[in-house]
Design brief:
heterodimer; A: MetI-like fold; 2 domains; 16 helices; 2 strands; B: about 270 residues; Rossmann fold; four-stranded antiparallel β-sheet; 11 helices; 10 strands; phosphate transport (chain A); MetI-like_sf (chain A); cell membrane (chain A)
Chain lengths: ~450, ~270
């Protein structure tokens, strides 16, 4: 139904555009007065005035309709039945009425519930008709106003621009609000967690054993929520990833940008970009099926004890994932160095290698560092590879041949399964998420600083 | 003024010999034939100006003289160019070493994003011209002095070169080129990004440099060519139409195209 309404609105707006443009065009062609705006702007003005307020109205209506109808239905329920009910019971009754209204009747409900369901249905159909009428009326008023404004003096060009500006502002405000919403929900749940587990224990505790008893009679650990070993695991895996990604990404970008012939460049660059397009789940397969067994057998050959889920395997594969990331940042940073500097150095009798080392690289380093920092925050937040290839037990170790777990892995395991949402085990996931968010946010801010600084360097 | 230039040019042509001689040089950018059969003798210890309308190939030819065109993939050079009698396109010649002997200054000042000192010291360090820190200091100071920049920057050698004014930056780039002790200095429109005062300073400097180097300058300003050069070559559509003493080119050119160009009828 709503789909049709939007379709009709779109049509009305299009009609408004065509009508207004035609009228304005005729007026411009026939009249002696010089029009301020071209016919197209008068058309666009009609389009916006017909479509925008009506669409906003529909969205607002849809937002409010449900709760308004609910409260009317609930309010009209007989006093005798409602007396002394708590919120939980009330929402149960509400759900039952709605399901009756949809035609799913179980057993024989009380007559007052049937009556309420009927009222609910009739209210909904009234609302639907009212929505159509009101929306079309608003669209019609918009169209009328736009048509009555066609005149030589009317500055449709500026009006259209003003309206689109406001539209863009609204979109960016929406994006910002969503971000705030996400952060707020994280903080809210984390505060609930810190009610049950002291924040000092979480931040400084060296034990992570979130398995606590869900029922009185269950056998489980006492539960320890120290995030240090988990975060240390993240750091170990991130370090391994960077040790793989930074040299390979950096050197390959320098080679492709400064030394390779255009033919080699045109072949290798797309291949590197394919690497960026591989889904992380596939990297995960690669880690458990290829890299981890290889490391294990290599370790066995050397007589070293290697865990089945090593940080080395997970981190190494994550490093491969980050190569295109780092090389594309390096590439951008190197290309941004003006050609004049390159020529200047070569004209002084420097080789290409000396030019890269002494002129291009120092000039590009802030951009490269920015890229590396962004890669770090990606590595910290990366989930799929580590869920598949890293371990589950939080051990306090920095040995990359050991099994470690990461913050993201723990978040996933804490939220899988059916535990209640007022349980510290579940809520711990939000606290971990909050910490992850803070760390990556800080890294991103530092990276942005670097990138901004580098923009000011030459000029 | 013309008389003094003629006199100077004559003196110059008496004492100098050909530093660079090019024969039948052709340059191609992919399929475009940019330079056609250019032959020229460039004298030592004098200033040679290349003039001509935009796109006539004068910068391209200039860049052949220190093999900067090698850095462009699609560029191909034919013919011979000799520096002191040795073909610079010979397989035995290292273009990197050649560029230390034939310095270049670009159209837009392009100081490295380093300190003033490091800008100058860059070339000498690469080529191992200084044995000690004191040596290097000496090279930097003398290069800056010869570029007439020493007095202005001696107290802030550690300041970034990019912080100087446009004219100072260009003189810094000239000093940088001098510091590697080249024999020839190529200048590709060195004053086109400068204001008149800075231009005058750079021109004065070019005149000074003539005592020790062979200077080749590409310029769009006829007045500049007349002021600073002893020899002038006129390029048009990839051909070198005329090459003679500057005084002759600007007073009594042989070619009607040259006449038309220097009097401003086209270009």
């Amino acid at each position: 139904m709503i789909g049709y309404l939007f379709l009709v609105l779109l049509l009305a707006a299009a009609v408004g555009y065509v009508m207004n443009r035609a009228t304005a065009r005729a007026a411009i062609a026939g009249g002696s007065a010089r029009f301020h705006s071209l016919a197209g702007f008068h058309g666009a003005y009609a389009l916006l005035l017909t479509g925008l307020p009506a669409v906003l109205f529909v969205l607002l209506w849809l937002l409010l309709q449900g709760s308004v109808i609910d409260s009317i239905v609930i309010g009209s329920l007989p006093e005798t039945e409602m007396a002394g009910l708590d919120a939980g019971r009330l929402s149960l009754i509400e759900a039952e009425i709605k399901s009756i209204a949809r035609g799913n009747i179980f057993g024989t409900p009380e007559p007052w519930k049937l009556e309420a369901a009927e009222r609910y249905n009739s209210l909904r159909s009234i609302a639907s008709v009212a929505l159509w009428v009101a929306t079309l009326a608003i669209a019609a008023v918009g169209l009328y106003v736009a048509r009555s404004r066609i005149s030589p003096e009317f500055r449709a060009r500026h009006r259209v621009e003003a309206i689109t500006t406001w539209l863009m502002i609204a979109c960016s405000v929406l994006a910002i609000f969503v971000t705030f919403g996400i952060v707020a929900s994280l903080i809210y749940e984390s505060i609930r967690f810190f009610d049950k587990v002291p924040i000092t224990e979480f931040l400084f505790g060296l034990n992570w054993e979130p398995q606590i008893a869900l029922r009185e009679d269950q056998v489980a650990g006492a539960g320890a929520f120290g995030w240090v070993p988990v975060f240390l695991g993240t750091i170990v895996i991130t370090t391994v990833a960077l040790v793989v990604a930074v040299p390979i990404g950096l050197l390959s970008a320098i080679y492709l940008n400064e030394f390779a012939s255009s033919r080699i460049r045109s072949i290798s660059k797309p291949i590197l970009e394919v690497l960026a397009g591989v889904p992380t789940v596939v990297y995960g397969f690669f880690a458990i099926l290829v890299v981890a067994p290889a490391i294990r057998s290599a370790g066995a050959a050397l007589g070293i004890d290697v865990a089945p889920n090593t940080a080395l395997a997970a981190g190494g594969v994550m490093g491969i994932m980050l190569i295109p990331f780092i090389s594309s940042f390096t590439d951008d940073a190197l290309s941004a160095v003006p050609r004049a500097l390159r020529d200047g150095s070569l004209a002084l009798g420097a080789t290409r290698g000396e030019t890269v080392r002494k002129i291009l690289f120092p000039a590009a380093i802030p951009g490269i560092v920015g890229g590396v920092l962004l890669a770090v925050s990606r590595a910290i937040g990366e989930t799929m590879i580590v869920v598949m290839a890293a371990g589950l037990i939080a051990t306090l170790t920095v040995n990359p041949l050991d099994s470690v777990t990461t913050v993201t892995v723990q978040i996933v395991t804490l939220l899988i399964g059916d535990s209640e949402f007022d349980n510290p085990k579940t809520l711990a996931a939000f606290a971990l998420g909050l910490m992850l968010f803070i760390v990556t946010l800080a890294l991103n801010l530092i990276a942005l600083r670097f990138v901004r600084k580098y923009r000011e360097l030459y000029d | 003024m013309n008389k003094t230039i003629t006199a100077e040019a004559q003196i110059a042509s008496n004492i100098v010999s050909a530093k660079i001689s090019a024969r039948k040089v052709n340059v191609f950018y992919g399929d475009t034939h940019a330079i056609k059969d250019v032959s020229i003798e460039i004298l030592d210890r004098s200033v040679t100006a290349f003039i001509g309308p935009s796109g006539c190939g004068k910068s391209t030819f200039l860049r052949c003289l220190n093999r900067m065109n090698d850095t462009i993939d699609i560029c191909r050079v034919e013919g011979t160019i000799e520096l002191d009698g040795h073909d610079i396109y010979d397989a035995s010649v290292d273009p990197v070493q050649l560029r230390a002997r034939v310095g270049m200054v670009f159209q837009k000042p392009n100081p490295f994003p380093k300190s003033i000192y490091d800008n100058i010291a860059y070339g000498p360090k690469i080529h191992g011209l200084a044995q000690s820190k004191a040596d290097l200091d000496g090279i930097v100071e003398s290069a800056l002095r010869r570029a007439a920049l020493w007095e202005e920057v001696k107290d802030r050698l550690a300041a970034p070169g990019t912080g100087l004014s446009g004219g100072q930056q260009q003189r810094l780039c000239i000093a940088r080129a001098i510091a590697t002790a080249p024999e020839v200095l190529l200048m590709d429109e060195p004053c086109s990004a400068l204001d008149p005062i800075a231009t005058a300073q750079v021109e004065e400097l070019i005149d000074e440099l003539r005592k020790s180097y062979s200077v080749v300058i590409v310029t769009h300003s006829m007045q500049q060519a007349a002021r600073v050069s002893q020899k002038t070559a006129f390029f048009h559509l990839g051909l070198m139409l005329e090459y003679d003493d500057t005084s002759k080119i600007f007073t009594n050119p042989d070619h009607e195209k040259t006449q038309a160009y220097i009097t401003g009828r086209f270009g």
